[in-house]
Amino acid sequence: MTFRAPVSEYEFLLNNVVGYGDVSATDRFAEAPSDVVSAILNEAGKMCDEVLAPLQRNGDLTPAYLENGVLRTSPGFADGFKAISEGGWIGMSAPEEYGGMALPLTVATAVNEMMAGACLSLQLAPLMSQGQIEALEHHASDAIKELYLPKLITGEWSGTMNLTEPQAGSDVGALSSKAEPNGDGTYAVTGQKIFISWGDNDFCENVCHLVLARLPDGVPGTKGISLFLVPKFLPDADGKPGKANDLKVVSLEHKMGLHGSPTCVMQYDGATGWLVGEEHGGMAAMFTMMNNARLGVGGQGVGAGEGAYQHALVYALERKQGKTASGSIVDHADVRRMLMEMKADLFASRAILLACAQAIDMQTATGEKDWAARAAFLTPIAKAFGTDTGIRISETGVQVHGGMGFIEESGAAQYYRDVRVTAIYEGTNGIQSMDLVARKMMDGGETAFALIDEIEERAERARATHPNMAESVWQACESLREATEWLVAQEDIQDRFAGAVPYLRAFARVLGGHYHLAAAMADQGGPREKLARFYITRMLPEHASLLAHAQAGAGGTFALSLDELAG
Ligand SMILES: Cc1cc2nc3c(=O)[nH]c(=O)nc-3n(C[C@H](O)[C@H](O)[C@H](O)COP(=O)(O)OP(=O)(O)OC[C@H]3O[C@@H](n4cnc5c(N)ncnc54)[C@H](O)[C@@H]3O)c2cc1C
């Protein structure tokens, strides 16, 4: 299956929908105007199409494995990682002083998504390094930054993120890994971590683990957690990988999908580590990495959705069944419905992803608190809606294939199996939704209402050219406003939590209408206007049932006793 990175889609979105011009108009990002970004996207797209996409099946058919304690990666993955490193794609938004390109995160987000569409399991490796680079940049000592950042950015070394333990998943504060001061400025880290993505590989000369652990005087819960950098090989006096550290990969998980990405059980036995950030300030440092990773994982969902869509379209164009104008199933109305829904939701989720990245760039460039609030608000939506969309599209992709979708040789199922985990890791989508209706509404809904106002303003402007579509978006937005008012008025947080998932999805649906409307205005008479009409007429109305669900409170969800649930 050939993959074509959606470069022109990105160009259109950046230039017409999410206001990339505001980013490149800042001093901070003045060196990345639209034409430069186009050149970058084209270059990255070429690598995705030619180098990464051919590796996608390898990861599934020949997963990573352990051989006498040595991790062997899937065929071709070492070359793929080399191409990503040599292209500079790991350090796209990293500081120039350490060898990065200092590009806007908006551009990095687009490139990450294209790489995910080409080969999701390999793309997770640079994504992990990018998160680590950002955490070190903001929280590590100068000595650590000088030694580690250039090597992580060139891809000579790779990064991982170690939070999860058997008893500490969503509840990170329950972790029991320990760190004892060695008396020389280093710490001895001991504990077991599970589900560690790319916990090892055979293509980087060192693997650097960011590990959450508790110091002897660390209080229980998240407040007592510290963050440590624990490399596989201890750097020698010249900064080269030296003695092996006291850590190992115990085993690899057998997973539903994403087989090319080794998911490791890691054992630390008094391994030497360096503190990153403050003592007991581990969660603050880790949040830097997690926010970056949440946006990145949202992009994984959209990317995988793109791959699944392209795969399904090729099949639909070739498969002959029944009488249609073209002779192929693509002209059956129900198959068209599936393809249109896939395409319309890809557009919506990609626009939300980019809008979130754009807000982060504006926050970086201006330091304005409104941009910070907008970025924080959009992050859980970009993560949850991006990944749910990838899952839904890849599941629909299986359906487009009919029986062949259920047969592994067609490759349709791989997209679904691979992307399924994205709704689970980096904070499940349930946890993202709770974050949206609780922490992100601690301002009494101010950030949400500012965004709602903006959506309505665009709808008002669109009335002149697209009265029906504009009215639908405006009405949906009013319903969203009422639901948001209801949510912030609830005193019992359980009443918010019970409807958090449908609320997040409804918000994303309305945002999708907002961005589709912008596309329609920019492409009057063109295909994007037609796609917008499809979305606004047929998919946006879903917001109504979602909002009814969101405002129903917790009572109903607890209506059945545990016995009745089992009965
Ligand atoms: C392939 C893969 C790769 C991974 N990579 C990494 C990695 O690199 N590093 C790392 O540290 N971890 C990694 N993880 C772990 C991942 O982040 C966790 O699986 C995830 O955070 C969920 O934790 P859990 O599995 O313990 O589920 P649980 O926390 O047990 O959740 C089970 C269910 O309960 C819900 N739930 C839990 N708590 C609450 C709550 N307070 N309110 C409402 N609902 C709740 C969840 O939403 C979920 O539906 C990976 C996992 C997988 C499968």
Automatic annotation (TrEMBL):
Residues 79-156 form the Acyl-CoA dehydrogenase/oxidase N-terminal domain. Keywords: FAD, Flavoprotein, Oxidoreductase. It holds the Pfam family Acyl-CoA_dh_1. This is Acyl-CoA dehydrogenase. It comes from Leisingera caerulea. Residues 452-560 form the Acetyl-CoA dehydrogenase-like C-terminal domain. Belongs to the acyl-CoA dehydrogenase family. Its cofactor is FAD. The keyword Flavoprotein applies. Residues 161-269 form the Acyl-CoA oxidase/dehydrogenase middle domain.
